[in-house]
Amino acid sequence: MRNEDENERGKMTAEQAMKMLKDENVDVTLEQAGKVLDFLRLLAKVTVLNYLKKKRDEKDSRFICESEYRRAGGKRLLTKKSRGNAKKVL
């Protein structure tokens, strides 16, 4: 039943992997083919997660755009206003 479920979801079965490896002159047992598939799935998952994390970090660290925050990156947020009637203390 498990092999049928994996095929429905598009996953390769250990039997299919064993046949594919045999076609490439690599003799493995059914258990070894299953372990190879588990390792490749883990490697693919880690690779995708690292790629997505890198993309997210690039997006978070981009420069501030004027159109998005209605200001340019190098300008001051609060400008000093001159007080014409204030006396200089220093």
From TrEMBL:
Protein name, as recorded: Uncharacterized protein
Organism lineage string: Bacteria, Pseudomonadati, Bacteroidota, Flavobacteriia, Flavobacteriales
